[in-house]
Write a structure and sequence with these properties.
This protein has 22 helices and 20 strands. The protein is of the alpha/beta class and 593 residues long. The protein has two domains: 304 residues, Rossmann fold; 239 residues, Glycogen Phosphorylase B (Rossmann fold, 3-Layer(aba) Sandwich), CATH 3.40.50. It binds pyridoxal-5'-phosphate (PLP). The site of pyridoxal-5'-phosphate has 13 residues, from α1, α16 and α17.
């Protein structure tokens, strides 16, 4: 008989999940986080599963011309090569039509062999109309109507599919961002059984809340998913629309998916301490807690550092806290591992771009979604000043990457501006913008540069995770104080701050401080006191690598969120995990039945 422990109890819903580099079902940080969460869940033996859409045509493949103009190509992949088809079928009502769904399975195997299945929902079935067949094609593609249909498929279709697949022991439903909030409607309908949605009572809602938890990722109201009421009526029908209205999920005639998730969750969290604080300001009626994001340590540690950690503390793969002991690794070994990572990045760049970078030169990295608030071009505000820094203190080179959403014109403009700056600086500062930034490039860039630059417009960066990947590879950050950096920053120990926390400064002040840090602190240390710089790299691993990982993060979800009620009893999933029959071999407990 299958052990209860292996029977999923937590269902994790996310519009995007980064499973592996050949599966383009993610756009950026949200999807990478979802994948890392499930990978750590598998490592920790958490009885959980994931639900997302198939995204048959993926996000997109980025092409850049010589001026940095982006064009998008469909990201082609073959689900049948990587996924296992399931026989389960269900349907979901959209605009009064029945849209049939199937599910594909991807299995994540953790370090101890525990598995976490991920179900990818697919509408490309012959029974569906040609249009309905495209509903699970593009991630964040199409218009509002397309997006709303996708959210109905993810939320309502997802819950129905779990029933069709026979997952009957689920206790906790986790909404990773508001896109998944319609699971609440489906769960409510299930709970009411034959009763009409209009008969819902506060007690019913309370019953639903006990099962749901919600993680919000957006620190500004404009970032939250919203749909006009007539569109909601059209897609969901009058009964479900009225139910959402009855729960106060509309403001000014607009359905706010964040409200749907907030109303129906008993545990709500932001993705960093500072972000939770900001979220409480936006939604003062909700008890919003914080569980700071992380990254999957083994996935984001480059081969040279994996080998180094394996040598010093082989337990780190199973227990990331061992990374704290990096503080005792001799500097020469850190230096050698980093040199190997840098060489690997430069070789990859030579292969793909034809550009040659200099291994002895300070290399600054910046790669993330190209959207205006991330300010990829802030560094290039004053080109003459950058030239002067290179002349006075020492040379530096810059590696960048990032895709702009196909409708994000300001985001696309930031890429063009970086290309303009690169052309103007080319006699003095080498700048490489890699095309089609994805998780493979992410691994190369976050491990192969000497400094990770992060210059978001505050307070837009809820957490940010690429600096955490860098930290696992000993790469310190130079960052404005926002998101995770409020917690990760120790001046001169894990990197350096840009600007001050208290004053809300202009970008001119931030630029001045950024140049000041580069010119007077970072570059002089890199060239003048290389051992001190390697010391910063080492303490970055010990302090930030050991904490900002998804193993710590998922453990915090277990301790704080994955419980049916916000009571002070141990969460059921944790009790199950710690049952004697789950104990390590050799620790068998005679009283177990
Ligand atoms: C890690 C990662 C991101 C997220 O980076 P942030 O710093 O959180 O913006 C986005 N895209 C890819 C491909 C990544 O690997």
């Amino acid at each position: 008989m299958q052990s209860l422990v292996d029977t999923p109890k937590v269902a994790y819903f996310s519009m995007e999940i980064a499973l592996e580099s050949s599966v383009p079902t993610y756009a950026g940080g949200l999807g990478v986080l979802a994948g890392d969460t499930l990978r750590s869940g598998a490592d920790l033996g958490v009885p959980m599963l994931g639900v997302t859409l198939l995204h048959r045509k993926g996000y997109f493949e980025q092409r850049l011309d010589g001026q940095g103009n982006q064009t998008e190509l469909p990201a082609t992949w073959h689900p049948e090569d990587v996924l296992e088809p399931t026989k389960a079928r269900t349907s979901v009502t959209i605009e009064g039509r029945k849209v049939k769904l199937r599910a594909w399975r991807y299995v994540i195997r953790g370090i101890g062999g525990h598995t976490v299945p991920v179900y990818l929902l697919d509408t490309a079935l012959a029974e569906n109309s040609p249009y309905d067949q495209t509903l699970t094609d593009f991630l964040y593609g199409g218009d509002h109507h397309y997006r709303l249909c996708q959210e109905v498929i993810l939320g309502i279709g997802g819950i129905q599919m779990l029933d069709a697949l026979g997952h009957s022991h689920l206790e906790i439903y986790h909404m990773n961002e508001g896109h998944a909030a319609f699971i609440s409607l489906a769960l409510l309908e299930k709970q009411l059984a034959d009763r009409a949605l209009s008969s819902v009572t506060e007690e019913d809602r309370q019953g639903l809340r006990r099962k749901c938890i919600f993680t919000t990722h957006t620190p500004v109201p404009a970032g939250h998913d919203q749909f006009q009421k007539d569109l909601v009526q059209q897609v969901l029908g009058p009964e479900r629309t009225t139910a959402l209205e009855g729960a106060d999920c509309f403001t000014d005639g607009t359905l706010n998916m964040t409200y749907v998730a907030l109303k129906y969750s008993h545990y709500i969290n932001g993705v960093a301490m500072h972000h939770a604080e900001i979220s409480r300001g936006m939604f003062p009626n909700y008890p919003i807690r914080a569980i700071t994001n992380g990254v999957h340590a083994v996935t984001w540690t480059c081969p040279a550092f994996r080998e180094l950690y394996d040598r010093h503390f082989p337990e780190w793969r199973r227990d990331n806290l061992y990374l704290r002991y990096a503080i005792g690794i001799p500097l020469v070994e850190i230096k050698a591992a980093h040199a190997a990572a840098k060489r690997a990045l430069f070789e990859e760049i030579k292969k793909k771009n034809g550009s040659r970078l200099e291994e002895s030169v300070m290399t600054i990295g910046f790669a993330r979604r190209a959207t205006a608030y991330k300010r990829a071009n802030l560094l290039f505000t004053d080109l003459d000043h950058l030239r002067r820094i290179a002349d006075r203190v020492g040379p530096f080179q810059i590696v960048l990457g990032g895709k702009a959403h196909f409708r994000d014109e300001p985001g696309k403009a930031t890429i063009r501006r970086v290309f303009e700056a690169a052309a103007l600086l080319k006699d003095k500062i080498k700048i490489v913008y890699v095309e089609n930034y994805d998780i493979l490039w992410g691994q190369f860039i976050t491990s192969g540069v000497d400094l990770w630059l992060n210059t978001p417009q505050r307070p837009y960066e809820a957490s940010g995770t690429s600096g955490m990947k860098a930290a696992l590879n000993g790469v310190p950050s130079l960052s404005v104080p926002d998101g995770w950096w409020f917690e990760g920053h120790v001046e001169g120990v894990t990197g350096w701050d840009i600007g001050q926390e208290e004053v809300s400064e202009s970008s001119a002040q931030e630029v001045a401080d950024l140049y000041n840090k580069l010119e007077h602190i970072v570059l002089p240390m890199f060239y003048g006191r290389p051992d001190a710089y390697t010391g910063v790299m080492r303490s970055t691993i010990a302090l930030n690598g050991s904490f900002f990982n998804t193993q710590r993060m998922v453990s915090q979800y277990l301790l704080n969120a994955f419980r049916e009620e916000p009571a002070l009893t141990a969460p059921q999933v944790l009790v199950e995990l710690l049952r004697p029959e789950k104990a390590m071999p050799g620790q068998s407990n005679k009283t177990s039945s």
